[in-house]
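Write out this protein's structure.
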Amino acid sequence: VLILSGDHIYTMDYSKMLDVHRANKADATIGVFEVPWDEAPRFGIMNTDSVDGRIIEFEEKPPQPKSNLASMGIYIFNREFLSRYLKDDAAKENSEHDFGKNIIPAMLNDNARLYSYAFEGYWKDVGTIESLWQANMDLLADEPPFSFNSAWTIYSSNPSLPPHYVGPEARVHNSMLNEGSQILGEVDHSVLFSGVKIGKGAKVTNSVIMPFTKVEENAVIDHAIVAQNCVISAGAAVTGEKGAIAVVPEGEVVEAAEEGQQVS
């Protein structure tokens, strides 16, 4: 049984992980990835035997992690083994019925054969605003760390829209534009989804603008994620401050603030 998370960005050939699972005669194999130490406390951390990668301890979001091997939320289980633990956990009234808090610790307590599979490559957990923003910015590097494997199909919505349009006085630098977008202002180091419209004199930098959002004339957006179907009114400002990313929720209308005010 292969179980995956839905809010991660990566490409992995699961057959290679399955080969390791079988070679180790494992009951369960968990994909792991080395994360920066300062980010480790927000992940489930696997402490492993340095010789064969067998998991000896699991810590769910530890404040002081013993390793930086984060669980990728990718599991391979032997079917009957998994079924037994799920049924046992379902019968426990005091259980939170959570993989990290209950299921995995129970397996380790029984000395089950749990092994890690170390993944090498690009992997991003986009469970926070900052990581979602950074994943989009990663695409703008001269050599993006995330490679789109042309042999594998990417399944996504593909609206039938006209090609993007860049006006005669517009300026676009180091950005990704999607079909149906119309640029009359300035766009720098940003990702624009389908149907986004940028008005004259507007400036968008270091930002992610989601589908069918309209940025009106002379508006300013910097270090932000603007959700779909929003309107950033003429003269309005949406800017992140002190390293934070400004966020505009779906369908929001941001009006121009009084002098000295801004959305952040």
